[in-house]
Every structure is written in structure tokens, then in C-alpha cells.
Amino acid sequence: MILDGKQTAQTIRCELREQISEITKRGLRAPKLAIIIVGHNPASETYVANKMKACAEVGVEAERIAFESDVTEQQLIQEVQRLNTDPMVDGFIVQLPLPEHINESAVLSAIDFHKDVDGLTPANVGRTVQGLPSIVSATPRGIRELLARYAIRTEGKHVVVIGRSNIVGKPIAMLLMQRPYLSLPGMSAASLGDATVTICHSKTRDLASICRTADIIIVAAGCPKLLTADMVKEGVTVIDVGINRIDDPASPRGYRLVGDVDFEQVAPKAAYITPVPGGVGPMTIVSLLQNTLQAYTASMNQQQSA
Prior knowledge:
The chain has two domains: 27-112, Leucine Dehydrogenase, chain A, domain 1 (Rossmann fold, 3-Layer(aba) Sandwich); 136-281, 3-Layer(aba) Sandwich (Rossmann fold), CATH 3.40.50.720. Helices cover 40% and strands 16% of the residues. The chain starts with a helix and ends with a helix. Mean pLDDT is 92; it is low at 183-190. It is an alpha/beta fold. The protein has a five-stranded parallel beta sheet. Strands 2-1-3 form a three-stranded parallel beta sheet. Helix 6 (138-149) packs across helix 10 (280-305).
């Protein structure tokens, strides 16, 4: 079965639109997301445009804050600090990557974790690791949501994560191995965690034999068609986070997008599999919207109790 991230994300957007409509009907302001972008990276420009469009669809107010690529690290951190204290901004993100002269870690660490709707600050990552309420990184949250919406249980399952990035690999491993705290309608809390997780990476020996023991494989390695049919067992669930451009003279654009999974070969053996595009990507964007509403709700509750 195809795990349709595009359709699932659209369903969640409808839910968010209804929730935000109810908020504004009560005379309250809508949630607001700010997006900082540095330079003119074509991919980043596209990602930001998609996020702005998604905000408009659900009723989230969005602000694009652009800097030229020669902005200094200190200037960028000053803008982060300004947004930290702006009561009208519920959450914001710094679109990555940043120019080489800027320390990404320093910039992300300056973000107030209450407004960190990308879930990348040390505070939010640490709270996620400890199983405390946190803003979960958008892509891992989207993966978990997709599994939940298709009623794919993870407790007791062997999950292999290929990739150890701070954005996907590490946080999704933490989420699936710990005792979960997120419950969705129709799903018991226990079904969304308590997995046995193996993390693999570029130095892992005999990756194929490890993958063949997995009930669920999450691939986030940035390597086109890394996972092949001989590496998976029958009935596996495969989540492909990769998105890679490969040359294709037959395509009008001269290239096509593929994932980290050899989809055509692996799909016949899989019980569930995500396509590329249309799988994890749409779930990442809708998770950012969910995180923004979460930050807004927490902020409004704090103001009311003050």
C-alpha cells in the first residue's frame, strides 16, 4: 500500500483550517509564523514559497524575512532575538542551509525553544530525547503522524533508521524508541512508540543484512536508490525521506526526483511504502503548521494564566 503523504497532509490541513477558523471566530488573532531566509538559494526559495502557501491555506499569518547572503552572523542573531520577544510572532524558523560564514548551531541555539517550530534548538531536542513535552522536529513529526494515520503500530517492532542527521535520523529514532506521549483518535498511545531501533550510517558494516531484519525502515541518507529489493524482507514498511535529482533527458526539466529507495523494485515486497515525491515531503510542511498552532496555543494559555 502507498502511504499517501500528499492526501494525508491535505486532510490535516483541513483539520487545521477548521481549528484556526474557530479561534478567529472567538475574536482572537490567528497564529503567526515568521520565516527567515538568507541569500537566494533556489531550493530554499521554493521551500519557503511552499511554506507561505501552506500557511495561507489554513489561515496562519506568515511573514517572510529576507537577508542577503552577506549578512553577518551577529545581524542574523539580532533578528532572531527580536523575534524571540515579539508577542505577535508565535513561531519562526531559519531556513537552512545558511552561508558558510554563519555558524548554524549558534543561530539555532539563539532561538527561544517556545517559538522553535522547526524543533531544532538544543532545548527542544533535549526534551524530545527525555520524552518531555516539546516541539518535535517537523520531518520526524510528519513521519510519526503518517504511521499513525495508517494505523501502523511500532511497539515491539524492529525499526532501522538509515541516516544520523540532527534533523531526521536522530530525532525519529528517539521518538520511536521511547514511551510515547502523543495519542491520536483511533490509536492507542502505546502503538506510536516502544520500538527497538537500530541507527545505520555511512560506516555501518553489512547494511543489507541489518535491513533484512527490519519491520520498518526509514531512509534519510541523501543517496539515490540506496535501499534495494535484496535489502528488505517481505511485508516491510518503508519510509523514504530522501529527495534527489537525477539526470533524465526524457524529462522536460532535464531531471527527475527520486528517493533514497529504489521504489519500483522495493514496492512489490513492501506492505507499506512512501513515494517520492508525495510522501514525507508534504507531511513535513503540514507538521510545521501543526507546530505553529501548538506554539500559539501554549503562548495564549500562558497569557491567560498570567
